Amino acid sequence: MSPAGPLDPAIAEIRLAVRKALAGLPADATVVVALSGGADSLALAAATAFEARAMRLRVRSVTVDHGLQDCSADVAAGAARQAEALGLDARVVRVEVGAGGGPEAAARDARYAALADEAMDAGAAAILVGHTLDDQAETVLLGLARGSGSASLQGMAPRSELRGIPLLRPLLGARRATTRAACAAQQLRPWDDPHNDDDRYTRVRVRRRVLPVLEDELGPGIAEALARTAEQLREDSDAFAEMIDETIEDVVEPAEAGIAVSVGALAANPAALRHRLIRHVVASEFGVSLSRAHTLEVARLVTDWAGQGPIDLPGCRARRVGGRVEFTAR
């Protein structure tokens, strides 16, 4: 028998990314792979199947049929067949997509709910999804367009949680071209979702129009630069979160029908931390997110106090009472 040829670089890159993501999982654990049938998720499923054998992991692929296209059932069945050929326990789940938040958000919510249900049914130690560096760059640009601050520019984290189960994104450092090359090298047949070419969707316009223009006008490497920006902002956010955890007990105290924050403690902190503390207190106590405009108005009760009255906020009201800012339910 002739020796095997060199491993295709695209396959090697995807497998290495998956190996790093799965490191530390106990042997015989189960992981769930989200498989749409597209190149990203198919390359992810193939790499996970390969790495799982060496790590003695069980893998269940979950293909969510949103029922939004006439061919959706056939596409889902085709993805499941390829997963079975890779040696995976393949599942297809049909979901109903609601109308809340627009079609993209509704489909995403239904998809993640189905993934969480399947992962809990399997007792999975992790859920893997196939977002790439290109997806990350698009997410950062969309966040920039919303203008909602650093939180929206952090993009997607390599690791988060879905109903308490680790949600892993191993391919955030890989380009879409790499996942396509990996599929081609393994003779896998990805499905091209026509929605990915539909300019009615904002993300599609970013992908097909905005990013190419930026590359043409500013030079190559824009997607990588956006992904690096997201990573750096996540690091900053983690640092701020640690500061808030260390500070919060020293600045808050109970108040009638709400919570109060020490004016002196807020004033002693730099503006960036002061604003995060205000948003954190309101989110934790009342479950709402403050806009920057609202945050700045509350901060003026600390830094520009001139006897102004209460401020109506989403879900609560803020007012200055002596040396405290009190937040109470509306």
What does this structure look like?
The structure is a single chain. By secondary structure, the protein is an alpha/beta fold. The chain is 52% helix and 16% strand. It is built from 12 helices and 11 strands. It has helices at 9-22, 39-55, 72-85, 103-122, 133-146, 150-153, 176-185, 202-218, 222-251, 263-267, 271-286, 292-303, and strands spanning 30-34, 58-65, 89-94, 126-128, 159-162, 165-168, 252-255, 258-262, 311-313, 316-321, 324-329. The strands form 2 sheets. Strands 3-2-1-4-6-5 form a 6-stranded mixed β-sheet, with helices on both faces. A 5-stranded antiparallel β-sheet has the order 7-8-11-10-9. The model has no long low-confidence stretch (mean pLDDT 93).
What's a concise summary of this model?
The protein is an alpha/beta fold and 330 residues long. The chain is 52% helix and 16% strand.
In the CATH scheme, the class of the largest domain would be Alpha Beta
Number of strands: 11
Distance between the termini: 77 Å
Mean pLDDT across the residues is 93
Helix content: 40-55%
User: What composes the largest sheet?
Assistant: 6 strands, mixed
Question: What is the radius of gyration computed over CA atoms, rounded to a whole number of angstroms?
Answer: 23 Å
The CATH homologous superfamily of the largest domain = HUPs
CATH hierarchy: architecture of the largest domain = 3-Layer(aba) Sandwich
CATH fold description of the largest domain: Rossmann fold
- Shape, principal axes of CA atoms: elongated
Given as residue ranges, the uncertain stretches (5+ residues, pLDDT < 50) are none
Strand order, main sheet: write it out. 3-2-1-4-6-5
- Pattern of helices and strands: HEHEHEHEHHEEHHHEEHHHEEE
Number of folding domains? 2
Helix tally equals 12
Content-based structural category:
alpha/beta
In percent, how much strand structure appears in the residues? 15-25%
